[in-house]
């Protein structure tokens, strides 16, 4: 039996770039924003720069399937496969079920 998830998934975390690659990491992450926002099932996608130089990503997806499809895209795969080259430390990430669902989430 297949169950349909009605609660969006949120993914968020910090990335600390290597100082010599910080501008490159910012360009790469920024290049993901608008295309990701256009993807089916994306409800929110935000990129922030923290005062200490880390980048903070906040994403909300309608379903696990939508997130899986996003994570399989070649530009994102290439970045993720080379994370150690870009970052000083492992990403600090969290993946949770949103407790305050969007009433319109199922429509998008």
From TrEMBL:
Catalytic activity, EC: 1.-.-.-
GO molecular function: monooxygenase activity
Organism: Streptomyces lateritius
Name used for this protein in its record: Quinol monooxygenase
Top-level taxonomic group: Bacteria
UniProt lineage: Bacteria, Bacillati, Actinomycetota, Actinomycetes, Kitasatosporales
Domain ABM: 9-95
Enzyme class: oxidoreductase
Keywords: Monooxygenase, Oxidoreductase
């Amino acid at each position: 039996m297949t169950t349909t998830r009605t609660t969006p998934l949120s993914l968020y975390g910090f990335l600390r770039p290597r100082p010599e690659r910080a501008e490159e990491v910012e360009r790469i992450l920024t290049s993901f924003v608008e295309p990701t926002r256009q993807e089916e099932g994306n409800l929110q996608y935000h990129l922030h720069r923290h005062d200490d130089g880390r980048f903070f990503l906040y994403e909300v997806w309608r379903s696990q399937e939508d997130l899986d499809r996003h994570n399989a895209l070649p530009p994102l795969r290439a970045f993720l496969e080379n994370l150690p080259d870009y970052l000083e430390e492992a990403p600090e990430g969290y993946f949770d079920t949103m407790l305050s669902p969007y009433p319109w989430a199922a429509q998008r």
